[in-house]
Design a protein that fits this description.
By secondary structure, this protein is α/β, with parallel strands linked by helices. The protein has 15 helices and 13 strands. The longest helix is centred in the N-terminal third of the chain and has 25 residues, at 74-98. The radius of gyration is 21 Å and the shape is globular. The two termini are 12 Å apart.
């Protein structure tokens, strides 16, 4: 089977596809399917997806896209359109040379040229929507897709009913079934102390980092903290750790970014503080975590929709980005961390889990490739 994957910009467009790849490999091995699984990823030469994909031993073909079209001025939009045209011809070359039987697209600006190239060359596409509400790229590409997989039932209304299948969010291996005590010890933390995971998404979140930096002395009296800072603030947060008293220093673990260790970090935690990118719809339920969500206040509302979905189902509490401070962050963490509240929210999260999501998408891809 020859599969071309495209998507990028943030890790939320990358890790779901990698989970599907693992499900495909398992299914083919279990069925003793003849032939190799040939994988090619089309992404931006300037995006973070290249590093993640290469670490997974998948051939990466970069195309020369920079920026985007959403929330930019006229000149930047014009450059983006020119980049799309160039990227389209580059993608045509990749599709012709790799001859995929099927394309998996996870959205993002970079997925547009590859899907259009596949459509021109009559390669069927499965388009996956990680978020509840589609962005412009997924909306634009929907007519060119043979099948559209969505995370939640609420997303059906955006697409042609005959194309849509509800699969859930494909999560990374190792998110369920981990021993919490062992996971904490793998980070050098106490196995029986309550643990908080703070992260801002694949690029970090400066405002969350700054709020946490002021709340650290109080929070570390109650919690040990795994903090994924993003590379931009990694040095700053490590220097703050060095200034803590030795007793508290042992309880705080800042990291610029976690690749393969992220499932272990989620397993170690009791609750998580983070933005509300698409991954929260799958990884928070899979790990059974209560959440404090701070949706990114950009010019689009996809994170607000994701956060509202989890909050309405009792799995999360939300803080508006404009209201974020050390005081509001600490207050929310203390509310969610109250033992009875924490237990109820964790159970609500578990009820939303779809552990078969990656397998469901893998099966759809196989069916498209065979017909």
């Amino acid at each position: 089977m020859r599969l071309l994957i495209t998507g990028g910009g943030t890790a939320g467009h990358v890790y779901p596809a990698l989970s599907v790849v693992e499900a495909l490999k398992k299914a083919r091995q279990a069925a003793d399917t003849p032939g190799d699984l040939s994988l090619t990823w089309v992404g931006s030469v300037a995006g973070l997806e290249g590093d993640i994909v290469r670490r997974s031993n998948i051939q990466f073909r970069g195309i020369g896209l920079k920026g985007g079209l959403r929330g930019v001025g006229p000149l930047a939009a014009l450059r983006g359109l020119i980049g799309l045209k160039i990227g389209f011809f580059q993608a045509i070359g990749v599709v012709r040379s790799t001859r995929p039987q099927v394309i998996l697209a996870t959205g993002g600006y970079v997925s547009v040229p590859a899907v259009l190239a596949g459509w021109i060359l009559r390669v069927p596409t499965l388009l996956y929507l990680p978020d509840i509400e589609p962005g412009w790229a997924v909306r634009f590409l929907a007519p060119f897709a043979r099948r559209i997989a969505v995370t939640m039932e609420e997303s059906r209304r955006f697409f042609s009913p005959r194309k849509v299948v509800v699969t859930g969010y494909p999560v990374r291996q190792g998110l369920s079934g981990q021993d919490k005590r062992a996971a904490r010890q793998s980070f050098g933390l106490e196995p029986d102390m309550r643990t908080l995971l703070v992260m801002g998404g694949s690029r970090g979140a400066h405002r969350i980092n700054m709020a946490l930096s002021h709340a650290l002395p109080h929070l570390l009296l109650t919690y040990q903290i795994i903090h994924v800072t993003g590379q931009q603030d990694a040095t700053l947060m490590r220097s703050l750790r060095d200034e803590l008293p030795s007793e508290l220093k042992r309880r705080y673990r800042p990291y610029g970014f976690l690749h393969d260790d992220m499932p272990m970090a989620l397993a170690a935690a009791d609750l998580v503080v983070c933005r509300a990118g698409a991954a929260v719809l799958g990884e928070i339920p899979a790990a059974g975590l209560a959440a404090v969500l701070i949706p990114y206040a950009g010019g689009h509302r996809d994170q607000e929709r994701n956060a509202a979905y989890l909050a309405a189902r009792g799995a999360a509490m939300c803080i508006d980005d404009a209201d974020l401070s050390a005081a509001t962050l600490e207050e929310a963490i203390n509310k969610v961390g109250e033992p009875q509240t924490l237990s109820v929210m964790q159970q609500a999260a578990v009820a939303l889990a779809r552990p078969d999501a990656a397998t469901a998408i893998a099966n759809e891809l196989t069916a498209l490739a065979e017909h």
